[in-house]
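new request in #modeling-help
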Amino acid sequence: MRIAWGITGAGHLLQESVNILIKISKEHEVTVLLSGAGEEVLKMYGLFESVKNLTGGKYRELILEDDQRASFPMTGRFSLGTYDLLIVSPTTSNTIGKIVNGIADTLITNAVAQAGKGHVETFIIPVDLESGDLETVLPSKLELDLCQNCETCDASAACPNDAITPGIEINLLKCKGCGACQTACQFGAVTDGRLINIHMRDIDIQNTNKLYEIRGIKVLRHPKDLKSILF
Ligand SMILES: Cc1cc2nc3c(=O)[nH]c(=O)nc-3n(C[C@H](O)[C@H](O)[C@H](O)COP(=O)(O)O)c2cc1C
């Protein structure tokens, strides 16, 4: 099968999505589409290179939002029968909100719109599914209560991307999630993958519920639900 897989800027379900993407890429031709935020967040969680390594060759491409300009010409492929399937996982509340309101102004929302016009079956895995709190995972974080404000910050010195301002924060737009800072700090002041609770907003849950009503779109609860469809 020839599949297009979109990744938006969600940390939640990101590792789980990449795990399934890696498996699928072994058996199918997969083009990966990254929203601008999707690219940034993949880098923050140290997953960008694993995704990039899956691509190379015809229909095994890595398509970046930044390379597509305003009209997203590659999404015309969805009207031309190039892909059998479009998967978007994970899908941010932002992207869901746009899809259910018919807005197409990013690489991923354009892909979904064009897939609808080209009758390409679309599977969407939203991050915001149910009301209440959700446990989710953070990228690298400088824990100020553990930071000893050392004269020379070993974590900052170890960072190949100059992403750490000692005693203040990690600049996530520079961080590539390599984990060198975590190993370097003897006080454990850098965490990677700390779990936090976030509250699901009613508006986001309402938008997800509207997604079920869109013809051509199937909503899945978790990336592993793709296994029964694709393997
Ligand atoms: C580290 C990090 C993690 C994020 N995780 C989520 C998330 O799990 N769900 C979500 O809806 N937005 C999340 N965001 C916010 C989105 O990236 C942001 O709303 C972005 O504008 C979404 O753009 P997109 O929908 O075009 O990808 C996260 C942002 C950062 C910096």
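bot summary: The chain has a mean pLDDT of 97.
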